């Protein structure tokens, strides 16, 4: 048996693994040192009260025969699917509950969804990009069309004369750049996808961080998206579910290719390859969408937004170019003095014990840039910002 | 874009969906009727106290910053991996924690694991079989070598002169037949797999139901398995986790094909395509392996075993051939009077409101057989057994 040889085409190691190794080595050389971790996009605030209460109640349900839940529907708790369809309605995206699928999170779903597309697909990835987009497609044996972007276009590429792709990834608000796609730019991509028969995979994991009223939260706010787009979303950043795990995926009924309805295919996929998402976690997730839950998760997001402001002010003082931070929990800065991004990583780690993420890890055009996550504690973020100003000022 | 056309090769509809449709139609025609549901293998007893307490504690951890957990390690909580490696040690299977991967359950993992094998594989499935084995491989575009089995061999096939397969599924204790593979039979398959360079996918989801001391709980009790086998297990049936979702997968370090270590490939797969399993659920799962947890889950298993006994006694009285029930939560009976399995399904539903699973749904050689799950309530099982005796006696 010859295993999946595509694994041999994966690059040496995963970005965050590399960062973990480097910080580990630093701590071994400097025992007791304190690190200001703004590398991995993991949240630091605990779950909100509404979610905690719902989780406890769901655990209690599982303790008693009368309220015990066994297998959940594979595509998600119908009530939660309805709730999320209602959440979209507030954004002027008209979806039915049957178009919403509950998942264990966006990263799980971004990998699994490739099952819909079959073999030898051409996949367009706008870079800098979340490395798992690339790696999941390498494992699947797809061909990747890398679309580099840069400062000139604010890291928001537009469609143009390009190789025709089967699948196009868009992440807005973007990881890692924090850049957002405007309504007009998204419309261009929707039209492009419809014209070229491609499917857009829209990663909306950071939608809850959008401040500007005219920036779409969902691809389904754009006319024509229902015939070309799948949206993948998550409560990881919206509600601090990185370690709790819940997400959702929208596949419109109208999305057809070659006479096959992708919504129906996904139902078949889920009923074959999963037994649904944990009852307890789905109940916790449902609490996010209550009035109380929405209020509480927004309070937490404000904490992260204040972190972003502190960092943005520091970069403004230093006169360093950056984007993101306003509608996204990431800030993407140009490394000062023409430094390479891993060079800048080592410099910050050694000199001021601040850990960020080297832009190169998100694709070649990320070289010379650096990502800060704003999910740390306010105290650490403030201290890191002060150290940055002192070091680079 | 042409989607994955393999979906077109899937048969019309999924077995349990069909059953749900038929029972729904019955209830619409007979409002208020009570059904004795012994079809789907879903548990009916709530989670045990040790698990409930651990879940509550984990929820509390997520409520406070000092104990909050974000992203979990993609391959599982190291402590839980150690605990499960220890559980295997009691079965004389010597595994390291790094060979144990935590999953969201066996059905999820049985689908995902195909990612390791790449394209155009020949996959041997012993039938009757869990329908998802077949469907997941159809979606992946693999060729299926169906190995039918029957009463003569007690529904436990042996390797022989067969087409060479890349992957071989074994489920023991078996779903749907409840038959168990003896140590000698498993050794034959391990030797066969090593000789023919195949990988065994061993589904051990029902291991906790084994009574006979000489029946292996794990493929890794068999010499030579580490160079040919992957084991997929779950707490669904062991501890009533069907709606809570936790499982584990063992991929030995020694398992290599074509110079590629499958353990390393799976680490890369999980770090790319997941962000780990819910902290809360992993903590609940860990409680299953404590002394208290083991005692409590065994008490629950005894309840189901009593159900099995009640049904077996009824079939004995009726003089109907069956297997399973002793080391497995399923009983596999021959339909009386030469009835077809869907015919018998309709007969039981209409006459005595008992719902089972038609054997034909597990492969052509299941035609004429019928599966009872023993996961129902003792009251329902007793009543169903009495109705069976009355109807068929």
Automatic annotation (TrEMBL), chains A, B:
Transmembrane segments: none annotated. It catalyses: (2S,6S)-2,6-diaminopimelate + 2-oxoglutarate = (S)-2,3,4,5-tetrahydrodipicolinate + L-glutamate + H2O + H(+). Its EC number is 2.6.1.83. The keyword Signal does not apply. Pyridoxal 5'-phosphate binds at residues 71, 130, 175, 206, 234-236, 245, 275. Keywords: Aminotransferase, Pyridoxal phosphate, Transferase. Pathway: Amino-acid biosynthesis; L-lysine biosynthesis via DAP pathway; LL-2,6-diaminopimelate from (S)-tetrahydrodipicolinate (aminotransferase route): step 1/1. Belongs to the class-I pyridoxal-phosphate-dependent aminotransferase family. LL-diaminopimelate aminotransferase subfamily. PANTHER family: AMINOTRANSFERASE. Homodimer. This is LL-diaminopimelate aminotransferase. It comes from Enterocloster hominis (ex Liu et al. 2021). The lineage of its organism: Bacteria, Bacillati, Bacillota, Clostridia, Lachnospirales. The gene is dapL.
């Amino acid at each position: 048996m010859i295993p999946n040889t595509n694994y041999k085409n994966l690059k040496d190691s995963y970005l965050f693994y590399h960062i973990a190794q480097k910080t580990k080595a630093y701590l071994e050389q400097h025992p007791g040192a304190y690190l200001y971790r703004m590398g991995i996009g993991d949240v630091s605030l605990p779950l909100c009260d509404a979610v905690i209460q719902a989780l406890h109640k769901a655990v209690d349900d599982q303790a008693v025969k009368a309220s015990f839940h066994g297998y959940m529907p594979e595509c998600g708790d119908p009530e939660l699917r309805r709730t999320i369809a209602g959440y979209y309605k507030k954004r002027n995206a008209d979806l039915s509950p049957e178009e919403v699928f509950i998942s264990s999170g966006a990263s799980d779903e971004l990998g699994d969804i490739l099952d819909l597309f079959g073999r030898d697909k051409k996949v367009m990835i706008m870079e800098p990009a979340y490395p798992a987009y690339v790696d999941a497609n390498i494992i699947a044996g797809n061909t990747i069309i890398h679309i580099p972007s840069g400062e000139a276009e604010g890291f928001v590429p537009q469609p143009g004369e390009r190789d025709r792709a089967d699948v196009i990834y868009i992440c807005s608000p973007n990881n890692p750049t924090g850049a957002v796609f405007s309504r007009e730019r998204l419309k261009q991509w929707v039209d492009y996808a419809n014209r070229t028969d491609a499917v857009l995979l829209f990663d909306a994991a950071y939608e809850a961080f959008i401040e500007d009223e005219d920036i779409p939260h969902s691809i389904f706010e754009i006319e024509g998206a229902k015939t070309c787009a799948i949206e993948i979303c998550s409560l990881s950043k919206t509600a601090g579910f990185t370690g709790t795990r819940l997400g959702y995926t929208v596949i419109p009924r109208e999305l057809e290719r070659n006479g096959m309805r992708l919504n129906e295919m996904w139902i078949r996929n889920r009923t074959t390859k999963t037994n649904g998402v944990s009852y307890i976690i789905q109940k916790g997730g449902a609490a996010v969408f209550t009035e109380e839950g929405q209020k509480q998760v927004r309070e937490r997001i404000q904490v992260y937004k204040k972190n972003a402001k502190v960092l943005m002010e520091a970069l403004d003082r230093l006169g360093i170019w950056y984007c993101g931070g306003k509608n996204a929990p990431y800030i993407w800065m140009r490394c000062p003095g023409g430094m390479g991004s891993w060079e800048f990583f080592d410099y910050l780690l050694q000199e001021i014990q601040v850990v960020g993420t080297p832009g190169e890890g998100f694709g070649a055009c990320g070289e010379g840039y650096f990502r800060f996550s704003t999910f740390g504690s306010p105290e650490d973020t403030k201290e890191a910002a002060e150290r940055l100003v002192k070091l680079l000022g």
